[in-house]
């Protein structure tokens, strides 16, 4: 007993001498247990990957991936997408004037309209995106510049926003709601779409602004302070609007109280920071007409009316408007289809090569398949 | 450690004197002298490192002394101070976890030590004070206290035996817990002390505490009121050591001489030197590479950041202004903090958890050695013992095996084979030792052929019966026939008795004499009784025992027979006896001795001498004087011994067989087959050792032996040095220059075309080689090393313990610094066990010292095969895979994060959420690799055991060299690129849901992370060759846990989080078909090269041969199970 108590080493080495079953001085029989685990004889599956065993797997992968890839490719190709750049960099562009004369404090919004035509009709629901390029929404200083508890309706955070919001935390002494760089730079161009009948008349296309943000964001993550209190003006009293906004947060959508304040879907969509400097965000949905068999957006001429509020030329950014249909795999993206076809073909090819090798050298190696 | 040093400092003033004076019972003596009670340390044992108060600071300090912990602390502090992309929690939490776990473990161990200390310190003892027996706690014992100890109690401190309840003033002691020798040792009271301890007035003068258990020098001055004080010498036979147990004696009284931390036991249990494994060196090398990668990544990003910011409008666009503070910061300071931020962002490439996992793997993995029932030896009822788990993988890397002979290769279980009396060989004809190695005598008393005179015969047998230190084991009621070697029928079965001795040779000799009719009956109050052939009892008075020691290599007794003749019997090695006997007697015996030695027997020569009364008186006086000496007592004694043991007449010689250990030959063959070089280092004679080598198949019939011994050196006419030089050059030419370069992988036995060489050197020559007189020292050494390295086996005989260590050291430090392993069982092997990379102790018969100082202890040498070929191989493969995998998985973890910087304006934006960053190494990917590194058997144990050549495949750190490291790194880079760019192309249109909604940056990171976790885990699954249910559970379990955790983490608005970044991100990701498809695609694509590698690598290597072997093996196992149906 005494001997074992000094077995421990001075340094932080292990004490297995006394802890382990082999510790000295134990009087009882030290015969180790004959259990499978202790004897390292646990029953085990011992797969051996050889050309023979993997060969079918390659063929199977090839046979599964290639059809999926083809399906994806076809689906992606069937998605109709129309994209128009309305930044107004070129002088020929209708928005050139707006982009060129842009100042932060002009009171009258600058309007420009861009005609375009769709060669193909857009069936079913059409999704309208705005796209920005060279806009670093994923910059660290930008990403962290928000206060989620303020956006979640926390009263104390409303009046005392997080330090992360600096330098967009307070303006003229009063706290900014919503604070931070992301909120401050909310995309505020207004896009309207008109269909031009061949006879010259044009009708506005109804744009639905519901369902563009994640359901959980709209209903849980973002909440107005004071819950269902309709009087947002009073709720936000004592706060300042973000410096670059034209109107305070409680006037984002005066028409619909469920879409106003922090729960405004445009705002929520913007607050989900994009992964890459070139990105698109969902703006509106053009719903499929229910009554007739007409396509949602028939072939023809359209006009995009832009209320040009958002300056991008200072950082050489671009603004786009994108119309797209959506399939089960999302928006148009040929990458997945091509990748699947490629990988499937590679696997299939490898399968063939392996089959060849296996066939040629297999007779010599056939012992290798016997697992030990 | 510190405390001990302090203790030493406290005792500093007495340290200056070489001896301490102890007042027995604290009585001043002589009473007239001024009594200054000397100060000694108390009897408290402190083995613990910490107290409650200093635990936290001391433990933290010690933990942060480790480079890795310190690095992570720095990273953590940087995160706290500088505005960094990830919160301090991400690195603080793992660090905290690691520190806490280690602290708890160390605290627990220290608590155990505290408890053990307390148990020892509070143990109740009886102290005699002024004639009364006072119960005290053990820790209160002071030096000079008279302590009473009862039977079966352990001694609370080192005591000088004053009084025993036995009549013959002796007591019996077992030191099993000190050195493992379980025999009863006799200790003697100080002669001529009063029976009345109360009135005893004495001082003891003895040396300062020293750790040697078997050495003690002291003097006792006894004062009596009416006469001059007289002096008695004290030796180890008077000293009862703390930790030993009193046996067969009712009670004893003794005076405490060394207490507490100064006892010999406490001095012996001091820390061993720390050995570090070679794998750790590799890890440090890889760490350095990764540190360079880390720093260069950070530098590249910092540089690119400032280049990018210099472009107009990029640094501070209108939507993303800096704070005033940021603008005011000095540009260079900013650059520096940016650099630090990148470092912090990428620091996960060097994982904290790797250290924890490696430690855990080693600690838990070592249990498999102690648990292995194949290492269990039914004879000693013990299995293997692991003293350190730091070296597990080193067992798979051994290149040189240094083995002791006696007790390691041989059983140290001696059997008397033959003797030679007066030049006539006596052999027990009926013994059929060739068959089963066990002597069976058919007759009750074997008659010796009457060749030598009867007188001579009887003298020889009496000498055997008298010249020893064997004790007769008194058969107690419960221990009747447990003594080995006594199961054969004897003439007087009622006298079945066991003999106990420190050396098994002596037992064999006494038993041998018994076979020939002379039975040693025992030693009672210095009278030795033997029963002769006529069944008469002869008794001899034992006057002196001139002890055996390895330098003299002989021992003697001086006895007086009934007729009053004083006789000296001496037995010892031939080399030490021959010079001391009349030369004319030597020649006829020498031939026999040499023949016996060649046959592999241990030979001893027996001589005697009749001492005249004057001679004896003179000798006795000299002995007495030497024994009283306080300093250099041993030297003085040896001198006296040498003086007495001269002019003897040689009676005969004995041959004792030391049988080979079970499967020793097979084990050695397997080790050689595994590419290890086996060196036998022994103190034994060359002939004996050589025959053992042949028996172990280390030397084979065709092996050409290169001898470099005293004999070969003296052949030539020139001086020894020149001859040595000549021989070395000659052998070098033979073995090194002419031999074709040894191809690795060519197994010995098949490579018969090459001449094989064995090398033999003896101690004297070795010291000539290592320490020559002239300046060519290193040249000899180099030549010698080169020759040895080209020989298949090397035998070094006549080695002193220190020379063994010297050899190990020499090989250890030679070119390529090969991994060495020493195996031995005796105290003389301790030095080489400590010196080698891995030290293995055999739990043999020569005590416990080797086991105590070893890293691993096994009962038999045959267990070495499994320990190295199976355990070592597996441990190495496991830990190598563990290390490589850890670096790989963190590389492909961090690479996407690095690449993301190119897309986020080099702003240190993390790709993954903080929770993922923190949990990746702790939870998501740690368990599968830990289970793998504990359970993996890439080749099953039986195959490893049967194919020793497999060991060569991992030799020279094969799995942790730069090439495999590079291949793992390339895989990591490839997969990292796949993860990032695959998702990057997917996100060229972030509208991935079927309702047109888009994904943001956190979805991006989550998809990459999901692919990462799955790929990394499945890669491990691909590498797993041995799927137990634990592997299944852990691999699929940790994937399931990842999914569950992600749901959970994203499913709640966490009030303590500043940002709800992942809120429903994972659920939304799973609702997107594209995300599913890309995850599947990327996992498959990342693993494709791996699968291909696996397929194409296999047929090239041993797969085929292996499976064939395993088939054979299965057959053989079948056979074996038929042969031993009951063996389990």
Automatic annotation (TrEMBL), chain A:
**Cellular compartments annotated:** Apical cell membrane; Cytoplasmic vesicle, Secretory vesicle membrane; Golgi apparatus; Membrane
> Which GO terms fall under biological process for this protein?
phospholipid translocation
Query: What ranges does the record give for the region Disordered, renumbered to this chain?
Result: 1-24
Q: Which UniProt keywords apply?
A: Cell membrane, Cytoplasmic vesicle, Disulfide bond, Glycoprotein, Golgi apparatus, Lipid transport, Membrane, Transmembrane, Transmembrane helix, Transport
* One GO cellular component term: endoplasmic reticulum
Q: Which residues cross the membrane?
A: 48-74, 335-357
InterPro entries associated with the record: CDC50/LEM3_fam (IPR005045)
How is this protein positioned relative to the membrane? Multi-pass membrane protein
Q: Which PANTHER family match?
A: CELL CYCLE CONTROL PROTEIN 50, CELL CYCLE CONTROL PROTEIN 50A
Of which family is this protein a member? Belongs to the CDC50/LEM3 family.
Q: What is this protein called?
A: Cell cycle control protein
UniProtKB/TrEMBL annotation, chain B:
Spell out the InterPro entries in the cross-references.
ATPase_P-typ_cyto_dom_N, ATPase_P-typ_P_site, ATPase_P-typ_TM_dom_sf, ATPase_P-typ_transduc_dom_A_sf, ATPase_P-type_domA, HAD-like_sf, HAD_sf, P-type_ATPase_IV
Major location (coarse): membrane
Where the record annotates domain P-type ATPase A, the positions are 124-263
Active site feature: 404 (4-aspartylphosphate intermediate)
Q: Which cofactor does it need?
A: Mg(2+)
Compartments where located: Cell membrane; Early endosome; Endoplasmic reticulum membrane; Membrane
- Where is the P-type ATPase N-terminal domain positioned along the sequence? 38-91
Give the catalysed reaction(s), semicolon-separated: a 1,2-diacyl-sn-glycero-3-phosphoethanolamine(out) + ATP + H2O = a 1,2-diacyl-sn-glycero-3-phosphoethanolamine(in) + ADP + phosphate + H(+); a 1,2-diacyl-sn-glycero-3-phospho-L-serine(out) + ATP + H2O = a 1,2-diacyl-sn-glycero-3-phospho-L-serine(in) + ADP + phosphate + H(+); ATP + H2O + phospholipidSide 1 = ADP + phosphate + phospholipidSide 2
Q: Which SUPFAM superfamilies match?
A: Calcium ATPase, transduction domain A, Calcium ATPase, transmembrane domain M, HAD-like, Metal cation-transporting ATPase, ATP-binding domain N
**Which of this chain's residues are annotated to bind Mg(2+)?**
404, 406, 825, 829
Q: Which GO terms describe its cellular component?
A: early endosome; endoplasmic reticulum membrane; plasma membrane; recycling endosome
Domain of life according to the entry: Eukaryota
How this chain sits in the membrane, per its record, is: Multi-pass membrane protein
Which protein, by its recorded name, is this?
Phospholipid-transporting ATPase
- The source organism is Alosa alosa
């Amino acid at each position: 007993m005494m001997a074992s108590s000094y077995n421990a080493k001075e340094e932080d080495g292990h004490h297995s001498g006394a802890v382990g079953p082999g510790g000295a001085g134990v009087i009882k029989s030290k015969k180790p247990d004959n259990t499978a685990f202790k004897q390292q004889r646990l029953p085990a599956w011992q797969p051996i990957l050889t050309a023979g065993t993997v060969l079918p797997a390659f063929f199977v992968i090839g046979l599964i991936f290639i059809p999926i890839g083809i399906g994806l490719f076809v689906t992606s190709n069937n998605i109709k997408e129309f994209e128009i750049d309305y930044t107004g960099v070129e002088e020929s562009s209708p928005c050139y004037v707006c982009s060129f004369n842009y100042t932060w404090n002009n009171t009258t919004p600058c309007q420009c309209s861009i005609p375009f035509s769709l060669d193909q009709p857009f069936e079913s629901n059409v999704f309208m995106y705005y796209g920005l390029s060279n806009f670093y929404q994923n910059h660290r200083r930008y990403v962290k510049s928000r206060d989620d508890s303020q956006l979640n309706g926390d009263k104390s955070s409303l009046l005392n926003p997080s330090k992360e919001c600096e330098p967009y935390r307070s303006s003229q002494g009063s706290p900014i709601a919503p604070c931070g760089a992301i909120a401050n730079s909310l995309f505020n161009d207004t896009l309207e779409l008109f269909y031009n009948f061949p006879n010259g008349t044009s009708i506005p296309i109804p744009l639905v602004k519901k369902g563009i943000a994640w359901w959980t964001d709209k209903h849980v993550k973002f909440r107005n302070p004071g819950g269902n209190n309709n009087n947002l003006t009073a709720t936000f009293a004592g706060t300042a609007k973000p410096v670059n906004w034209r109107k305070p947060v409680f006037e984002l959508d005066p028409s619909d109280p469920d879409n106003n304040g922090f729960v405004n879907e445009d705002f929520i969509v913007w607050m989900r920071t994009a992964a890459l400097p070139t990105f698109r965000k969902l703006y509106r949905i053009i719903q499929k007409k229910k009554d007739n068999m007409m396509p949602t957006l028939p072939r023809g001429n359209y006009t995009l009316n832009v209320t040009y509020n958002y300056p991008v030329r200072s950082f050489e950014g671009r603004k786009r408007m994108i119309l797209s249909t959506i399939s089960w795999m999302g928006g148009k993206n040929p990458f997945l289809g091509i990748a699947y076809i490629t990988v499937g073909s590679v696997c299939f090819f490898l399968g063939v090569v392996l089959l060849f090798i296996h066939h040629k050298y297999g007779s010599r190696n056939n012992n290798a398949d016997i697992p030990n | 450690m510190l405390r001990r040093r302090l203790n030493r400092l406290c005792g500093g003033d007495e340290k200056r004197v070489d001896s301490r004076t102890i007042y027995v019972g604290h009585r001043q003596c002589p009473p007239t002298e001024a009594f200054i009670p000397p100060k000694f340390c108390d009897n408290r044992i402190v083995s613990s490192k910490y107290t409650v108060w200093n635990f936290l600071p001391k433990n933290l300090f010690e933990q942060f002394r480790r480079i890795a912990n310190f690095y992570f602390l720095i990273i953590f502090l940087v995160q706290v101070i500088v505005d960094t992309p990830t919160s301090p929690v991400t690195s603080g939490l793992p660090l905290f976890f690691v520190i806490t776990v280690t602290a708890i473990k160390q605290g627990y161990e220290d608590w155990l030590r505290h408890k053990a200390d307390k148990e020892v310190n509070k143990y109740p003892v009886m102290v005699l004070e002024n004639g009364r027996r006072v119960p005290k706690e053990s820790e209160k014992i002071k030096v000079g206290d008279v302590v009473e100890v009862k039977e079966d109690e352990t001694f609370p401190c080192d005591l000088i035996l004053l009084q025993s309840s036995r009549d013959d003033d002796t007591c019996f002691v077992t030191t099993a817990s000190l050195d493992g020798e379980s025999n009863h040792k006799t200790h003697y009271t100080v002669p001529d002390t009063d029976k009345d301890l109360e009135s005893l007035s004495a001082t003891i003068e003895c040396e300062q505490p020293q750790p040697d258990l078997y050495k003690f020098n002291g003097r006792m001055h006894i004062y009596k009121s009416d006469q001059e004080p007289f002096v008695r010498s004290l030796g180890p036979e008077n000293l009862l050591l703390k930790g030993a147990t009193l046996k067969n004696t009712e009670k004893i009284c003794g005076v405490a001489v060394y207490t507490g931390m100064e006892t010999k036991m406490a001095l012996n249990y001091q820390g061993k030197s720390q050995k570090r494994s070679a794998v750790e060196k590799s890890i440090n090398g890889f760490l350095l590479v990764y540190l360079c990668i880390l720093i260069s990544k950070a530098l590249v990003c910092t540089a690119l950041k400032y280049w990018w910011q210099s472009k107009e409008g990029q640094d501070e666009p209108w939507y993303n202004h800096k704070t005033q503070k940021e603008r005011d910061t000095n540009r260079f300071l900013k650059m520096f903090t940016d650099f630090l931020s990148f470092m912090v962002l990428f620091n996960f490439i060097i994982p904290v958890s790797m250290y924890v996992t490696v430690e855990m793997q080693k600690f838990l993995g070592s249990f498999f050695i102690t648990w292995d029932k194949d290492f269990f030896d039914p004879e000693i009822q013990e299995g293997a013992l692991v003293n350190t788990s730091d070296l597990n993988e080193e067992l798979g890397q051994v290149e040189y095996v240094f083995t002791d002979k006696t007790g390691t290769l041989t059983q140290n279980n001696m059997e008397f084979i033959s003797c030679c009396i007066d030049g006539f060989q006596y052999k027990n004809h009926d013994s059929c030792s060739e068959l089963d190695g066990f002597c069976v005598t058919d007759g009750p008393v074997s008659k010796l052929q009457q060749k030598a005179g009867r007188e001579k015969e009887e003298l020889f047998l009496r000498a055997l019966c008298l010249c020893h230190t064997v004790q007769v084991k008194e058969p107690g009621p419960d221990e009747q026939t447990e003594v080995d070697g006594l199961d054969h029928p004897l003439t007087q079965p009622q006298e079945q008795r066991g003999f106990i001795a420190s050396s098994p040779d002596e037992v064999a000799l006494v038993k041998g004499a018994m076979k020939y009719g002379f039975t040693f009956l025992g030693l009672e109050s210095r009278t030795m009784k033997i029963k002769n052939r006529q069944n008469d009892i002869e008794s001899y008075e034992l006057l002196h025992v001139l002890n055996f020691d390895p330098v003299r290599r002989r021992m003697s007794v001086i006895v007086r027979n009934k007729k009053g003749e004083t006789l000296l019997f001496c037995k010892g090695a031939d080399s030490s006896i021959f010079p001391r006997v009349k030369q004319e007697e030597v020649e006829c015996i020498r031939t026999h001795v040499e023949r016996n030695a060649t046959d592999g027997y241990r030979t001893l020569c027996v001589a005697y001498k009749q001492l005249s009364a004057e001679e004896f008186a003179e000798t006795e006086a000299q002995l007495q004087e030497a024994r009283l000496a306080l300093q250099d007592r041993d030297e003085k004694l040896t001198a006296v011994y040498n003086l007495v043991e001269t002019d003897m007449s040689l009676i005969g010689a004995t041959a004792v067989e030391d049988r080979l250990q079970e499967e020793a030959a097979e084990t050695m063959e397997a080790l050689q087959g595994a590419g290890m070089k086996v060196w036998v280092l022994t103190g034994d004679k060359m002939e004996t050792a050589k025959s053992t080598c042949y028996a172990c198949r280390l030397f084979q019939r065709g092996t050409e032996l290169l001898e470099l011994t005293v004999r070969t050196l003296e052949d030539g006419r020139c001086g020894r040095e020149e001859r040595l030089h000549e021989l070395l050059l000659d052998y070098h030419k033979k073995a090194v220059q002419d031999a074709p370069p040894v191809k690795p992988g060519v197994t010995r036995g098949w490579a018969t075309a090459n001449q094989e060489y064995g090398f033999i050197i003896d101690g004297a020559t070795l010291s000539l080689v290592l320490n020559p007189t002239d300046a060519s020292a290193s040249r000899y050494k180099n030549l010698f090393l080169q020759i040895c390295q080209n020989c298949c086996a090397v035998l070094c005989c006549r080695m002193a313990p220190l020379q063994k260590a010297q050899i190990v050291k020499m090989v250890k430090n030679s070119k390529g610094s090969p991994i060495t392993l020493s195996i031995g069982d005796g105290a003389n092997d301790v030095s080489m066990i400590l010196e080698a990379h891995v030290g293995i102790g055999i739990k043999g018969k020569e005590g416990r010292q080797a086991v105590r100082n070893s890293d691993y202890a096994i009962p038999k040498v045959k267990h070495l095969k499994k320990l190295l070929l199976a355990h070592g191989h597996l441990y190495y493969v496991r830990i190598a895979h563990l290390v490589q995998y850890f670096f790989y998985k963190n590389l492909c973890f961090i690479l996407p994060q690095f690449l993301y910087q190119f897309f986020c304006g080099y702003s240190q934006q993390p790709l993954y959420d903080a929770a993922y960053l923190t949990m990746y190494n702790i939870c998501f990917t740690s368990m599968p690799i830990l289970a793998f590194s504990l359970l993996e058997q890439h080749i099953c144990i039986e195959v490893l055991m049967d194919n020793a050549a497999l060991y060569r495949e991992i030799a020279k750190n094969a799995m942790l060299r730069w090439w495999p490291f590079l291949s793992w790194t390339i895989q990591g880079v490839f997969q990292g690129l796949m993860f990032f760019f695959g998702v990057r192309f997917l996100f060229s249109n972030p509208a991935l849901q079927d309702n047109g909604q888009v994904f943001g940056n956190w979805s991006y990171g989550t998809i990459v992370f999901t692919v990462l976790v799955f790929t990394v885990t499945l890669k491990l699954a691909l590498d797993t060759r041995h799927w137990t249910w634990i592997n299944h559970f852990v691999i699929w379990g940790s994937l399931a846990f990842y999914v569950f955790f992600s749901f959970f983490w994203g499913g709640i608005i966490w009030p303590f989080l500043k940002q709800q970044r992942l809120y429903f991100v994972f659920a939304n990701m799973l609702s997107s078909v594209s995300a599913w498809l890309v995850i599947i695609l990327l996992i498959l694509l990342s693993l494709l090269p791996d699968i291909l590698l696996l397929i194409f690598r296999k047929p090239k290597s041993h797969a085929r041969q292996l499976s064939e072997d395993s088939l054979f093996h299965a057959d053989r196992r079948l056979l074996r199970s038929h042969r031993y149906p009951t063996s389990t």
